[in-house]
């Protein structure tokens, strides 16, 4: 969890701080083109037929069943081979579909070469992301998520260096795109090397393909529906915004999605370290381990949502400038979706690992369909706020259904009453304090003040956690 948060916060800082730098280097409208192209790549990353989630679940089951190293090696070989085939097919699909979509976007000021560069770069980014997802799934199943996090930090440093080169030598949109794609290659290279060190070269046999390929695809197909639907829920509105409100609005929506993505990442970094514990727990241990996961994710998700809601206008003005102040109310509304995600993330994790994944897939699909319908109706308002409100309301309405599904798997409520009541009270007080700070300080001082207080509180919480851990697990003597 420490590496999840350390590398994760680095990644968030990169997402937040590099976004306005990229917009300044490329221009608001040109960068909007890359936001759309890269958004399509992120969308298709989840179209892996659920093989990534299937790897984690299947390897967890194999470990519980006492599978040896050779058996795991054969499984990994089959899984990665399937991933490579899917990655090549999706990259080809991207190269055909994205240019067709971009024809619907008003881009008069951009050249055909700009279109060509972002499409080629987007297809390459898609392939690299799928390879990172494949190898990282294997590492997750081995309880080594820290490797990917370290690679993320290295990739972010490379992106900063690339932007600095573009700023010094020029390059505009093309230079920014190249810097982002090159930095994205770090994670698959590092994770691929780590997987190769553990399992060696692929050992494909007909017997292994028959034994592992079919079951993995069947399991993955169920998980795939849910994963893709979950991503469609907040990615498809981007393309609606691009076609109806223009490239500048797409850039603003991209900024909001960076914040939302950061919140979702924080929820994932909090919940995902429990993957191994949840998948390997005996039935009588599951409830206790699940409650820790649920409460920790609720605390993290609520904290980031309260900050975003309380400092929405100040964050956008300090971050992107006064020209993007119009998106402030939309960012505040997005806090509702952040809290909903903090509820959904651990619930889906429990059901996918220990229950019936089809339940989560159907819920994700229902949320996706209703969100698309609500967003399409909200476009009549002609405002970014209406679109974000539509998306957030649907997410909040469905969150309790995920908890019900997880409760059935666990056999008890995953949320203890007193800690959750205390969390709500603290969240309300924190929101009031943040609004007070925003009322008396200019945007940058307000943001820095809240950030400073947050760092102090986070450090204090880490210190308390460490002391309790030491008391609960004292060092051996002698």
Shape call: globular
As a whole number of angstroms, the C-alpha radius of gyration is 22 Å
Number of strands: 0
Question: N-to-C SSE series?
Answer: HHHHHHHHHHHHHHHHHH
Report the uncertain regions. none
Average pLDDT reading = 82
- What fraction of the residues are assigned to beta strands by DSSP? under 5%
Transmembrane segments: 36-56, 76-97, 117-139, 238-256, 293-312, 324-344, 356-378, 384-405, 417-438, 444-465
Protein name: Polysaccharide biosynthesis protein
Membrane topology: Multi-pass membrane protein
Keywords: Cell membrane, Membrane, Transmembrane, Transmembrane helix
Describe this structure in words.
- It is found in: Cell membrane.
- Keywords: Cell membrane, Membrane, Transmembrane, Transmembrane helix.
- Its main location: membrane.
- It comes from Kineosphaera limosa NBRC 100340.
- It is a multi-pass membrane protein.
- The chain is mainly α and 478 residues long.
- The protein has two domains: 1-204, no CATH class; 220-471, no CATH class.
- It contains 18 helices and no strands.
- The chain is globular.
């Amino acid at each position: 969890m420490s590496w999840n948060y350390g590398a994760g916060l680095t990644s968030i800082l990169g997402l937040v701080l590099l976004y306005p730098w990229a917009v300044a280097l490329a221009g608001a409208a040109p960068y909007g083109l890359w936001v759309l192209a890269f958004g399509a790549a992120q969308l298709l990353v989840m179209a892996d037929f659920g093989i990534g989630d299937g790897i984690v679940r299947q390897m967890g089951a194999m470990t519980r069943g006492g599978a040896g190293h050779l058996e795991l090696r054969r499984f990994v070989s089959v899984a990665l081979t399937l991933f490579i085939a899917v990655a090549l097919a999706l990259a080809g699909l991207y190269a055909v579909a994205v240019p067709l979509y971009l024809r619907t976007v008003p881009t008069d000021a951009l050249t055909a070469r700009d279109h060509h560069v972002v499409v080629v770069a987007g297809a390459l980014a898609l392939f690299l992301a799928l390879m990172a997802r494949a190898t990282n799934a294997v590492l997750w199943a081995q309880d080594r998520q820290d490797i990917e996090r370290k690679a993320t930090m290295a990739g972010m440093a490379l992106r900063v260096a690339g932007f600095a080169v573009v700023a010094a030598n020029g390059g505009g949109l093309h230079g920014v795109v190249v810097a982002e794609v090159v930095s994205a290659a770090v994670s698959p290279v590092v994770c691929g090397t780590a997987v190769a060190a553990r399992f060696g070269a692929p050992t494909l046999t007909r017997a292994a393909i028959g034994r592992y390929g079919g079951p993995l695809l069947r399991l993955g197909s169920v998980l795939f529906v849910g994963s893709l639907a979950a991503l469609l829920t907040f990615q498809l509105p981007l393309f609606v915004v691009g076609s109806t409100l223009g490239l500048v609005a797409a850039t603003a929506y991209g900024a909001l999605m960076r914040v939302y993505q950061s919140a979702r990442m924080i929820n994932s970094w909090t919940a995902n370290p429990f993957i191994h514990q949840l998948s390997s727990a005996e039935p009588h241990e599951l409830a206790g381990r699940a409650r820790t996961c649920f409460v920790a994710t609720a605390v993290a998700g609520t904290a980031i949502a309260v900050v975003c809601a309380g400092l929405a206008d100040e964050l956008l003005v300090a971050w992107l400038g006064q020209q993007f102040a119009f998106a402030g109310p939309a960012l505040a509304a997005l806090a509702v979706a952040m809290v909903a995600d903090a509820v959904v993330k651990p619930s889906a994790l429990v059901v996918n690992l220990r229950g019936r994944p089809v339940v989560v897939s159907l819920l994700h699909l229902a949320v996706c369909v209703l969100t698309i319908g609500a967003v399409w109706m909200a476009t009549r308002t002609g405002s970014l706020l209406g679109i974000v409100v539509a998306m957030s309301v649907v997410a909040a309405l469905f969150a309790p259904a995920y908890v019900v599904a997880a409760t059935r798997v666990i056999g008890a409520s995953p949320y203890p009453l007193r800690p959750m009541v205390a969390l709500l009270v603290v969240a309300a007080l924190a929101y009031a304090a943040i609004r007070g700070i925003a009322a008396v300080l200019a945007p940058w001082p307000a943001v820095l003040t809240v950030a400073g207080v947050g760092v102090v509180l986070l450090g204090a919480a880490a210190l308390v956690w460490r002391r309790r851990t030491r008391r609960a697990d004292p060092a051996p003597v002698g």
